[in-house]
Write a structure and sequence with these properties.
This protein has 316 residues and is α/β, with parallel strands linked by helices. The protein has nine helices and 14 strands.
Amino acid sequence: MQKVLVTGANGFIGKHALPLLLDKGFEVHAVSSNPIQPDSNNCFWHQANLLNLNQTKDLLAQVSPTHLLHFAWYTEPKQYWTSHSNLQWLQSSLSLLEAFEYNGGKRAVFAGTCAEYEWKFSKYIENKTPLNPATLYGICKHSLQTILDAYSRETQLSSAWGRIFFLFGPEEHPDRLVSSVISSLLKGDTAPCSKGNQLRDFLYVEDVASAFVSILESDVEGPINIGSGKAVTVKDLVRKISKKLKKCDLISFGDLPTSPDDPKKLVADITKLTKVVGWTQKYDLDAGIQKTITWWEKQIPNNPSARLINNNSTEY
């Protein structure tokens, strides 16, 4: 049986990948730094701090996975762009990679980001669009991808790198765009936004997870964009949310400034993902928004004092 180790397994994407991997017949080993483990759901849970080299080595020796799906990273909104934690996660990811290969690993898929690209083009294509990250986060991710590629060639390890564009869905951090707008409107609060003319590529989190599982199952190597391949303005996205909740009057466009460094358009070319990997999107934007709203509707009544911050960030 193929055995997969999933890092960041209790995170935003990881938790959606677990049931998909089980459905595909993998023996799933999930890693969490939290001593209180989630329900197993037929997964084998392991507690480990991946920033600790000895714990990483012990974990990989114990599990000896054939496959690795690496999501774990520092992702605190606004802070992760410049945080020195990016350096720690770069180092720990290299240790994880080496331990995986040393213990007989065959196929590794790591999570990357569209922030690796130089943000001044209308469409972003793997191995064609220049890579020139402008943040420490993007630089560390790109450095890891470069080393993963070189190390794989030297060791004959099969590997791929999923470059995520903009995702959203249930259980996303409340400071992110979609979550903050939905939660504000459900509470009857005004949701301040920028003018919202930026074009972005949004994909529902379950589709992001399924894309990674499809890549893991395939033998496709190298960088692969993960997105919808479709452009939508931030303004139109916010309007879709407000119309579904019938609270258009609570949206205040132009209240927040737009950064002069904010690119006008960030949209993925997903030809490699759809044509070569063979992945198919399940949820369109409307369906993803509705599922996210439904989840938040269950949270707000039970958490009336939750600290929810409005912003118009579309960071990943």
